[in-house]
Amino acid sequence: MFTGIVEEIGAVTAVEPSGDGVRLTLRAPLSVSDAGHGDSISVSGVCLTVVDQGDDWFTADVMKQTLDMSTLVDVAPGRAVNLERATAAHGRLGGHIVQGHIDGTGIVREVRPGAQWSVVRIGIPTHLAPLVVDKGSIAIDGVSLTVSAVSDAPDPQPWLEVSLIPETLAATTLGGAEAGTPVNLETDILARHVQRMLAFRTTAGASGSDETERGSE
Question: What is the CATH number of domain 104-202?
Fold first, then answer.
C-alpha cells in the first residue's frame, strides 16, 4: 500500500529478459536504505517486489501482465522513475490510498505552463473514464494528484486534467512530461469497487426480471 507521495526519482540501470517478463535493476539509494528482501516499492506507480539489493540499488521481476498494462512494456536503461516505499501502518496518509495496481496507461495531450503551476491534460482509455471525477483522486505515474477537470461523459476521446505545483514538477518525473508522453494510471479504489458492485446489481436485477416473467407464464 502506498500514498502517492514520491520519495525520490530513481533510474533503471539494467533490463534482463526473464521468461515472458523482465528483471529490472534500479538505482534507488533512499528506497533501499531500509528495504529488505520481499519489500514492496512503487516504481512509477507499479508495485514491485525487491528480490535483490545493494547499497543504492534493487532488482525486481516484472511479469508479462504488468508489462502489458503499464509503461514498463518498453522500459530501457536510463529511464527515470518515481519511487515510493510502502507506507508504514503508523504513518500519515499524505496523498490517498494507492495500491500500485495499474489500470492502464494514458497519453499526455497538452502541457500548459503557468506562473505557479502547470496544467497537464491526459487522454485516458474509454473504460476508465467513468472512474475519474472532477476533484477526485488519481495516481499518475505513482503520484497522488487531484483531478482538476474532466471531459464530458459523451466525449469519445475522454481526458482528465491535473494541476502540478512547483514541488511536484521538481520532485517527480512529471516535471519532464510533454505531449506524447505515456503515463501509468491508477484510479481511485473506491470508484472501482462501486463500479463492480453496480455491475452485479444490474445483472441481478435482470435475472430477477426473467424469473418473474417465467413465473407468471
Answer: 2.40.30.20
